[in-house]
Write a structure and sequence with these properties.
This protein is mostly helical and 312 residues long. The chain is 65% helix and 4% strand.
């Protein structure tokens, strides 16, 4: 049985946004590897064997350099990612070409471009805030090590852990090979799981640590999908559309909540009722349902529709 047209259109968007999200995560990971190495090089300049005043003076002066490193690595990759949000808007508009709507709504307009730029600036601000937070985290770690007189090895391990967690670089050849394998083979699920397990059990890496990579990776995925959803809702409002298909494919780890609602069409009032707080399902996120959808890392989208068109 053929899928409804609006479902096919939504899955078209999902395939492209998912592929773009994976590309953005890969770019982020490379930037955080560079960040880790540059921060470590800077931290090695702390004279931990000298008197307290000497080492803390140097440690206090590190903060501006850390901010510069984060801007040149992490935030540069973020800016490259957000530039490509234009493609996401184009994919939505491409689906509108199949709709019985005025031709002017089937192209990107000057007003659209202004909205896109505003949404991109909002997205960048979230990443910037996270970067500033971790400037403080890293600066405090370095200063704390200078106060307590930690060994350089311990300080470096702590810094690496705060940035990349279990995926931190290592002087141990086998551990580094495992880290590189995980970074370069995201689709090899079984072998990646085995490599992660070995890092945890043999090398004592804590995967659940509150590290920069963990938060930044989640933000990369949620920011992209949030932009997609916000632009879709804005375009629907412009057309006076009040119904949406909650769409996309299901994966093995899809939430039960998404399995219940995927590919169903709801009015705006229905959506507000279904998503009303408290949201108790696993991974639920607070916020506008048109933005957060199924929750953190959700890859489903809202496809604007009009039931009266009988396209399906």
């Amino acid at each position: 049985m053929a899928k409804p047209l609006t479902q096919r259109l939504a899955e078209y968007r999902q395939r492209r946004t998912t592929s773009l999200s994976d590309k953005h995560v890969e770019r982020l990971i490379k930037s955080l590897q560079d960040l880790e190495e540059q921060v470590v090089q800077e931290a090695r300049k702390i004279p931990l064997k000298k008197q307290l005043t000497a080492r803390t003076t140097v440690a206090l002066s590190v903060r501006p350099k850390l901010k510069q490193i984060i801007e040149q690595t992490y935030l540069t990759s973020v800016q490259s990612n957000i530039t490509e949000y234009d493609d996401v808007a184009s994919w939505l508009i491409a689906t509108f070409k199949e709709y019985p709507i005025p031709s002017e709504f089937k192209e990107i307009t000057d007003v659209d471009l202004n909205v896109i730029q505003q949404l991109k600036r909002l997205s960048f601000a979230q990443f910037e805030d996270l970067g500033n937070e971790f400037v403080n985290e890293l600066a405090n770690e370095i200063y704390s090590s200078s106060i307590t007189g930690s060994s350089e090895q311990q300080m470096i391990e702590n810094i690496r852990g705060k940035i990349n967690g279990i995926y931190q670089s290592s002087d141990n050849t086998e551990a580094q090979e495992l880290v590189d394998f995980i970074a370069n083979n995201p689709g090899d699920t079984e072998n990646v799981r085995s490599a992660v397990s070995r890092l945890q059990t043999i090398y004592g890496r804590d995967r659940l640590g509150n590290n920069f990579r963990r938060y930044a990776k989640q933000l990369v995925q949620d920011s992209l999908m949030g932009f997609d959803s916000q632009f879709a809702k804005y375009r629907a409002d412009e057309l006076g559309l009040t119904h949406f298909r909650y769409a996309g494919t299901l994966e093995r780890d899809s939430r039960d909540f998404c399995r219940t609602h995927v590919n169903k069409v709801y009015s705006t009032k229905d959506i507000e009722r279904i998503w009303q707080p408290p949201r108790t399902w696993d991974g639920a996120a607070q916020g506008d349902p048109f933005v957060v959808r199924g929750g953190y890392n959700c890859r489903h989208n809202w496809q604007p529709v009009n039931p009266d068109w009988n396209l399906d």
